[in-house]
Amino acid sequence: MVDASATDRAVEAFSLLGDDTRLAILRTLWDAEDPLSFGDLRERVGVRDSGRFNYHLKKLDERFVRKTDEGYELRFAGRRVIGALLEGTYDQADDAEPIPVDGPCLECGAALTYRYEDEIASVSCDEGHDMLKTGVPPGIFAGRDDETLPRVFERYIRRQSEWTKSGFCPNCSGPTSAQVGESELWDRTDYTVVTFTCERCGQTLHSDVAAALLDHPDLVAFAREHGVGVRETPIWELTLLHDAETTVTTDPFRAAVTFRLDGDERTLVVDEAFSVVDVT
Ligand SMILES: [Zn+2]
Ligand SMILES: [Zn+2]
Q1: Which of 34, 46, 165, 181 has the most beta carbons within 10 angstroms of its beta carbon?
Q2: How far is the CA of 178 from the centre of ligand 2 (A)?
Q3: Dihedral of the alpha carbons of 227, 230, 234, 239, in degrees to the nearest 10
Q4: Both 188 and 280 in a single domain?
Q5: Is 100 helix (H, G, I), strand (E, B) or coil?
């Protein structure tokens, strides 16, 4: 969790950024290929008054910007600020028109629709079964054609999930832990999900256990043997996910997920912490 001194440091850092000239300095240093001298930087930012410019630059010094022998350049924190601005993290997005998605709901087989409302993207059926749902910064979608948005979103959420499974929180980069269990979802009490929780910020990511195993090397290889590219195919078109079957046993807890393709099958068994303990 965030301690008081970290909060103080963050408040101070954010307050330093609350100024157009300072953001322009960061953006200019980002765009520059090499470090810039004081004069070059001031000219590119477009501030005539050198005293005023120096005042703003000093505010960024040490935390966001560093002065080297070659001139001024961005520190890591400065690059992260520009990355978040470009990604649109602090923008408010326009809600998009719903777009039909070419695949059935895993739960009920109904048609799926992509939506983006209040910076939350989702792929759901009309019965309210969310196949995919998460917050997405608007910059992810900027400049993309409408018909590609569901696929862009799907790739985004899969990368976020891979990052989480590798042990990093996509929100704060803190360490994540996994817990597999049966959960109440969509009027069912026997849904087997894996919940990843960030130990630092508490953000959680829930996934169907079969979907969470999609990028496991043994499953990727099994699908490849049958001509299916798991990573390249949108999740709603992966029939092996639709046909997957999960069986849970206790003492010790094990969830066995069987995937089927062309009459052939592969079973991956995970323990409570989502470690694969057996493949058959
Ligand atoms: Zn449904
Ligand atoms: Zn976190």
Answers
A1: 165
A2: 13
A3: 60
A4: yes
A5: strand
Protein residues near ligand 2, an ion, with CB under 5 A: 169, 171-172, 174, 198, 200-201, 203
Q: Could you list the residue range(s) of the whole structural domain that residue 189 is in? A: 169-280
Tell me, what's the pLDDT at 142?
A: 81
Q: Nearest ligand to the C-alpha of residue 129?
A: 1
Q: Which ligand is nearest to the CA of 127?
A: 1
Last residue of a domain, one of 39, 70, 87: 87
Are residues 222 and 117 part of one domain? no
pLDDT > 90? residue 253 = yes
ipTM: 0.90
Q: How far is the CA of 126 from the centre of ligand 1 (A)?
A: 7
Report the number of distinct structural domains present in the chain: 3
Closest ligand by atom to 111 CA: 1
Compute, in angstroms, the gap from residue 221 CA to the centroid of ligand 2: 31
Ligand number nearest CA of 124 is: 1
pLDDT digits (tens, 9 = 90+) for 57-113: 998 987 899 999 999 999 988 888 888 887 776 666 677 789 999 888 888 889 999
Whether 100 and 80 map to the same domain: the answer is: no
pLDDT of residue 156 exceeding 70, the answer is: yes
Torsion of CA 193, 198, 201, 204, to 10 degrees: -10
Query: Can you tell me the distance from the alpha carbon of 30 to that of 44, in angstroms, rounded to the nearest whole number?
Result: 12
Ligand that comes closest to the CA of residue 186: 1
Query: To 10 degrees, the CA torsion angle through 216, 234, 160, 93?
Result: 180
CA of 164 to the centre of ligand 1 (A): 26
150's CB contacts (< 8 A; 6+ apart) are 99, 101, 114, 123, 234
Question: Are 81 and 105 in a shared domain?
Answer: no
CATH of the domain at 82: 1.10.10.10
278 in the same domain as 191? yes
175 with 264, same domain?
yes
